[in-house]
Write a structure and sequence with these properties.
The structure holds two protein chains of two kinds. By secondary structure, chain A is an all-beta fold. In chain A, about 0% of the residues lie in helices and about 50% in strands. In chain A, a hairpin with a 4-residue loop joins strand 6 and strand 7. The two termini of chain A are about 25 Å apart. By secondary structure, chain B is mostly beta strands. Chain B has no helices and eleven strands. Chain B is globular and about 40 Å long. The mean pLDDT of chain B is about 95. The chains are: A mainly beta, B mainly beta.
């Protein structure tokens, strides 16, 4: 059964709406940021990444925004679908291959 | 391509028992790491390796040993299991220029 993700902040969105998941990172020296999706019973899956020399990067239905001034990262999912329901983690890395993960946000897509 | 594989998928141990969690990757990645994931928390780095013969401690290394004799394999050893080590364990690998790819996880319960 589900043991990961208890007591996580939850974002509930209507199917078809856009989702925005936010993350505050800790190290101002971090220069690489990643968003992962984790479905129940599975390992984290890469969604999109961004380096510190950029402030926006787009993928298929997803956009990552980076605000280095306030150490904030966001993930935007366009036209959210039921298959997007999962826990989303941000991670930062600063030159030593030590990734630091956020605690995660659970996304629930309402039909 | 198998990617990152982990065995076993599930394991129950008694306090004081020892065991090895296996991790293998077939992508010729230099970097490998072990994380643990507890309910309501993000992934915490246990140990990592930047190449064969090189390992280093992460955020929560106590109670765990690792070795990296080959590029492909990165086993995690629990020398004397404790209930506090009940968790889901993930192995990940990456090249120096790419993001991490995660295995499916090992769910460990220590009684």
């Amino acid at each position: 059964g589900e043991s990961v993700g208890l007591h996580l902040p939850t974002l509930s969105v209507q199917e078809g709406d856009n989702s925005i998941i936010n993350c505050a990172y800790s190290n101002s020296a971090s220069d690489y940021f990643i968003w992962y999706k984790q479905e129940s019973g599975k390992g984290p899956q890469f969604i999109i990444d961004i380096r510190s020399n950029m402030d926006k990067r787009q993928g298929q239905r997803v956009t990552v925004l980076l605000n280095k001034t306030v150490k904030h990262l966001s993930l935007q999912i366009a036209a959210t679908q039921p298959g997007d329901s999962a826990v989303y983690f941000c991670a930062e890395m600063g030159g030593t291959y030590k990734y630091i993960f956020g605690t995660g946000t659970r996304l629930k897509v309402l039909a | 391509n198998a990617g990152v594989t982990q065995t076993p998928k599930f394991q129950v141990l008694k306090t004081g028992q020892s065991m090895t969690l296996q991790c293998a990757q077939d992508m010729n990645h230099e970097y490998m790491s072990w994380y643990r994931q507890d309910p309501g928390m993000g992934l915490r780095l246990i140990h990592y390796s930047v190449g064969a013969g090189i390992t280093d401690q992460g955020e929560v290394p106590n109670g765990y040993n690792v070795s990296r004799s080959t590029t492909e394999d990165f086993p995690l050893r629990l020398l004397s299991a404790a209930p506090s080590q009940t968790s889901v364990y993930f192995c990940a690998s990456s090249s120096y220029t790419d993001t991490q790819y995660f295995g499916p996880g090992t769910r460990l319960t220590v009684l």
